[in-house]
Specification:
CATH architecture of the largest domain: Alpha-Beta Barrel
Mean pLDDT: 94
Number of strands: 15
Radius of gyration: 24 Å
CATH superfamily of the largest domain: Glycoside hydrolase, family 3, N-terminal domain
CATH class of the largest domain: Alpha Beta
Structural class: alpha/beta
Largest sheet: 6 strands, mixed
Shape: elongated
Number of helices: 21
Strand content: 5-15%
CATH topology of the largest domain: TIM Barrel
Length: 530
């Protein structure tokens, strides 16, 4: 067990000004790092008295080297390595470190072979805050087992731009009230287990078509439009006691006097809109400072870190130039500014670190809660229940397209009904057309390989063209086990029925099969505009 954080009054007198500035820095830690890199971070912790670290999978992972083509190596032991590294880095620190991670849908977002829960867009389809609260509790419990104090969630962005390359499925939806209610439930669920929450990406990353890992998105909306929509969930979370707000790398000229500057380094947005106008008094954390929308703007080491602090960020996430950043802040900031941020950061650490020991060493099983979400989220988007009865009466062929050669969806249906079934994964177009040619009705399951929209969700041109052909030539009921924005690639006006299951987990496929068999009605509602 790590030592408790000392009281703020004692820390205020004990730590030097330089040590206080060190507490603002939260560099990246990598689970699958080399021993030399681990030792380098240990030394950084010791010599700079940094306040915390944010864990990522590896240096090749998307969050750290987004445009890289380096292969992310699978490591079945990542979770145990994570726990060992947390203990090791804590031993290197004079004061307990605040440990953070992105676990928007569970530790699986960063760590293989750990519990994965449904994406926020799937939770949004349930629109049941009580259920979302329970999902967040499970995620928070897993964080506690790992030794993590702070989950950078929930996403409070309203995804009102279907072309958004980086938010999309990470948002609860495109309706401000739905997003606000569900994000608040998520925040409360984590806090109920003792995990710090964080609303992101202020002032709202949903209406962008640029990936801020690579470039600076610009939102051209008036202040009134932003207050009525983008800022609405953040205001609800602030009123609901969210622990922190993460400021995104995006430009909103209406909030900065017409200047195109990243919100993460804008005094107008952080000290003006967030603090003065919206009344947020908690900790402000920057989005990762290695992201190219800001990291490539400043050549001199330490200047970006200073700009982010000067704008109003208390915690500098993924700061790449820690010693230089500390030196620059000490040179340029007033002592009162440093003390003000230090007070906020230290009290957040007290809340996050000074928890009673967690009562289990075991991660949760996500199965039961995932089954509940599968039931509540399944969405009959086109068609109705009599259509299913007709297909079962008249006969149909089944075609699985995407990643699932051994489809749990069709296997479950096949336990009760006999029908012709093909998986496209290892079949050529001619074979599929020959096998389905005599069927008027076809049930298609689609499991896109990727949840992100780039490259057509990685489905591939051959499978996509076959899917469109089948929709054009047959009566089709399509079950989609993936991002609902995938529908934008299809001639959906030609399908007879379209059911969205959102995830390709086995329990989601099995529940969808039970729906087709008439055992359940679809209860979910599409949370975004397509």
């Amino acid at each position: 067990m790590i030592n408790a954080i000392i009281e703020y009054k004692e820390a205020k007198n004990r730590l030097s000004l330089k040590e206080k500035v060190g507490q603002f820095f939260m560099p990246a830690a990598f689970i699958n790092d080399s021993e030399s890199e681990i030792q380098k971070l240990e030394n950084l912790i010791r010599t700079n008295r940094i306040g915390g670290i944010c864990f990522f999978h590896s240096r090749a992972s998307a969050a750290t080297n987004y445009e890289s083509k380096k292969k992310v190596v699978y490591n079945a032991n990542s979770f145990e390595v994570l726990k060992q590294l947390i203990a090791r880095y804590q031993r290197a620190s004079e004061h307990p470190l605040l440990i953070s991670i992105d676990a928007e849908w569970g530790l699986a977002m960063r760590i293989e072979d750990t519990p994965q829960y449904p994406y926020p867009i799937t939770l949004g389809a349930t629109n049941e805050p009580d259920l979302i609260y329970e999902v967040a509790k499970k995620i928070a419990e897993d964080c506690r087992v790992a030794g993590i104090h702070w989950n950078f969630a929930p996403v409070a962005d309203i995804n009102n731009n279907p072309d958004n390359p980086v938010i999309g499925y990470r948002s609860f939806g495109s309706n401000k009230s739905l997003v606000a209610a569900n994000a608040l439930a998520f925040s409360k669920g984590m806090q109920g287990v003792g995990i710090l929450s964080c609303a992101k990406h202020f002032p709202g990353h949903g209406d962008t078509a640029t990936d801020s890992h690579l470039g600076l998105p610009v939102i051209h909306k008036t202040r009134e439009e932003l207050l009525a929509n983008e800022l609405y969930p953040f205001q609800a979370l602030i009123a609901g006691g969210v622990d922190a707000v993460m400021v995104g790398h995006l430009s909103v000229p209406a909030l900065t006097g017409g200047t195109e500057i990243s919100a993460s380094i804008s005094k107008d947005i952080i000290k003006g809109t967030l603090r003065s106008d919206m009344g947020f008094q908690g900790v402000v954390v920057s989005d990762a400072l290695n992201m190219h929308s800001v990291s490539k703007v400043f050549d001199t080491k330490g200047i970006l870190e200073w700009k982010a602090f000067d704008a109003g960020n208390d915690v500098l996430c993924f700061a790449e130039h820690v010693p230089e950043g500390i030196t620059t802040i000490l040179e340029k900031a007033s002592e009162s500014e440093i003390e003000e941020s230090f007070k906020r950061v230290w009290r957040l650490k007290q809340k996050g670190v000074n928890q009673k020991p967690w009562n289990t060493l075991h991660l949760n099983s996500p199965v039961e809660v995932n089954k509940l979400v599968a039931d509540k989220s399944l969405t009959f988007y086109i068609g109705d229940e009599p259509l299913l009865v007709q297909f079962k009466r008249d006969g149909f062929a089944g075609v699985a397209i995407g990643t699932n050669e051994d489809s749990p969806f069709f296997k479950t249906i096949n336990e009760e009904l006999s029908f012709t079934y093909l998986s496209v994964v290892n079949k050529k177009r001619e074979e599929v057309l020959k096998a389905t040619g005599n069927f008027k009705n076809i049930v298609i399951s689609v499991s896109p390989p990727k949840v992100k929209p780039q490259n057509g969700f990685d489905l591939g041109n051959e499978q996509m063209e076959l899917l469109k052909y089948l929709i054009d030539k047959h009566n089709v009921i399509l079950y989609l086990f993936g991002n609902p924005y995938f529908m934008r690639l299809l001639p959906v006006n030609k399908v007879k029925g379209l059911v969205i299951a959102y995830q390709n987990f086995d329990c989601f496929q099995e529940h969808a099969a039970a729906h087709f068999l008439g055992k359940y009605k679809a209860k979910g509602k599409l949370p975004v505009h397509i």
